[in-house]
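A favour, since you know our structure tokens better than I do. Could you add the entry underneath, on a fresh line?
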Amino acid sequence: ALSRGQEVFENFCTPCHGSSGRGDGVVARRGFPPPPSLLAEHARSLADGQMFHILTYGQGNMASHASQLGSSDRWSVIVYVRSLQQQAPATPVADDVSSQTSAMNTKEAQ
């Protein structure tokens, strides 16, 4: 499940969430509002079922992925996200990616 989750995450999640899950994907770097970090305490505190619900129905700017990902792939992504969370320290709220992204956009504009 972990390797399949990584494969699905890389294809469907990294454009927005970035390869590390911090919310610094190419879409955010190009000016779209960045998603929350998957390493932040809020994401860590979500139950697996809540993450499954978000993948299925979407939330905020994130669209539903139910038509692109089968149930087993959605669960595999959750397994992979949990592994990312275990490997990295929690992201404090003050270090939110939106502030990092705005700094990146400022540098690109110069």
About this structure: Residues 94-110 have pLDDT under 50 and may be disordered. The longest helix spans residues 71-87. The helical segments are 2-12, 14-17, 26-29, 41-45, 48-57, 71-87, 97-109. The two ends are 43 Å apart (CA to CA).
